Amino acid sequence: MDWIRFNEPYGNEEIFKRATETSRRSLFESDIIEEMLQRRLSSIDLYSGETSPFFMQSGTAALEVMALAMDFKPGDEVIIPSFTYPATANAFQRAGATIVFADIESDTCNLDPKSVERAVTGKTRAIVPIHYGGVTADISSLQELASKSGAFFLEDAAHCIGASYKGGALGTFGTMGAISFHSSKNITSSGLGGCLFVNDGNLRDIVSEIIYQGTDRVAYREGRVSSYRWKRPGGEYQMPAFSMAYLEASLGRLDEVTRRRREIWHMYHDKLSNLEAEGDLRLCRVPESAGINGHVFYTLVNGRQERDNLKAHLHERRIEAFTHYEPLHDTSIGRSAGRCEGEMSVTNSVAGRILRLPMHMGLKDEDIDRVCSAIDEYMG
Ligand SMILES: Cc1ncc(COP(=O)(O)O)c(C=O)c1O
Fold this sequence. Notes:
By secondary structure, this protein is α/β, with parallel strands linked by helices. It has helices at 13-26, 30-42, 59-69, 86-94, 113-119, 139-148, 201-210, 217-221, 241-251, 254-277, 304-316, 332-337, 345-353, 365-379; strands spanning 52-56, 77-81, 98-102, 124-127, 152-156, 164-165, 168-169, 176-180, 194-198, 282-283, 290-291, 298-300, 338-340, 354-356. The protein contains 14 helices and 14 strands. It has an 8-stranded mixed beta sheet, with helices on both faces. Strands 7-6-11 form a 3-stranded antiparallel beta sheet, with no helix packed on it. A 3-stranded antiparallel beta sheet has the order 10-12-14. Pyridoxal-5'-phosphate (PLP) binds at residues 58-60, 63, 84-85, 87-88, 130, 156, 158, 180, 182, 194.
């Protein structure tokens, strides 16, 4: 029996060929390839609106630039989930903010607005949800809380290429939003990659300085200044030329990838709903406002031991399944980074019960049947 792998990075001969031709023709001339990539992205309906994408070396780099652009002062607080990748916390902590961990909702594993409301203080500078697995957080409630408290609404949309909220792309609702093109994501830029959407005119100039060593090189390139100078702390964050070429070619397939991943997501959901009805496991509740991208399909089972046993059962049947984030607040660095709002009981519970099932473009319908039958068999 063949293994059913958890993930396969997305790519094919045609994408490699186009990426290689683009790189060769432009001799790794970043500015030319970046323009092509910008045009490709804005030709996709979901990304045709008003936003400025900055292509970066990783989703982590996009979050770091986002955090640097906020220019935090000592005592400024940033509210994030604890059920996330350390990149979310690292970016804001390193930029000088105090981290406040809020709890999540078990229906979506996304920030719970009620916990965020309790977490807000006079020092809150930003509220930053992730949209777990490409399923939107409750954007309208979180945006309202941000505007009531004079804080920024920012998005860690690392999982979200191709995913939407009320028809608009996730990552474009916040003042800034970060996307990842790591090889584990629906579309990759050949390994590592990311993008920062900047939806505010003033911040656009600041971000373009940060990513070019803190200089006004972009203004120089556009003829707005006669030479470029060092103006603020910055670094070298841009996406390498070949990665941009690979992403440009891959984005041409975004609709097809999103369609198939959604189909797989719904197949899992339909086939496992009986077990949910019997109380053996829980599935994600997708809000009506969400356009999912099928980035992650997960189940929540009834406890950590049960989850680990199910994972081992699938492994014996040559099926790879993975747990996910261990809560950030429950680590010594997490404790020193800031504080928690409340007991974090949903976060603690979800982290011990979650199991992610295989999800990638190489899966065949029979593979989904095999995974679901193996789960059925385990549940008896
Ligand atoms: C929620 C979240 N934020 C940020 C990142 C970092 O993205 P990257 O791996 O592209 O640096 C990840 C990575 O998977 C993530 O899951």
